[in-house]
Amino acid sequence: MNALPLFGIAALIGALIAITRTQGPTDVNALQPATTRRINRDFTRLDPSFRARLERMLAELNAEGFDAIMWEGYRTPERAKDMVARGVGKLESMHRLGLAADIISAKDRWNASLAFRNALHDAAARNGLTSGLAGDPWHVQALPWEYDARLFAMAADKRTEFVRTLRG
Ligand SMILES: [Zn+2]
User: Fold this and answer.
1) Is the separation of the CB atoms in 86 and 20 below 8 Å?
2) Distance 140 CA to ligand 1 centre (A)
């Protein structure tokens, strides 16, 4: 058998995987029929003090001339599981606690400029939010990464109070 066609097929598969990986959640969402598995953009599902800081951050960014929007906020356990099965996100994500949001450009989506990403990072820090996760510049969450496990172990009411007390 000639090795050349096989190499061609392998290269094609590689390219398809690369395309799939860079497309982002738009297409991922299209594959999810169940409501609980869809992307949620409802600000009322977020932790109240996180929501207040997030909305202030978005207002500041957009006052600077950017077009920042929340792509995803609260995430159901079902959706988190689906994502992990596809090799993205993590099971114990702050999204599941309403303590994280993914912020992208309305026009450029995940191709937002470096200026956008820098402004997002700065605005997050100004509002006491954590961002700058390696490989995921869009993710913003209520508290630093080292609190993740602790927050997951807390009862919901304790968690709300903890976040509010810590960050106002
Ligand atoms: Zn995220």
Assistant:
1) no
2) 6
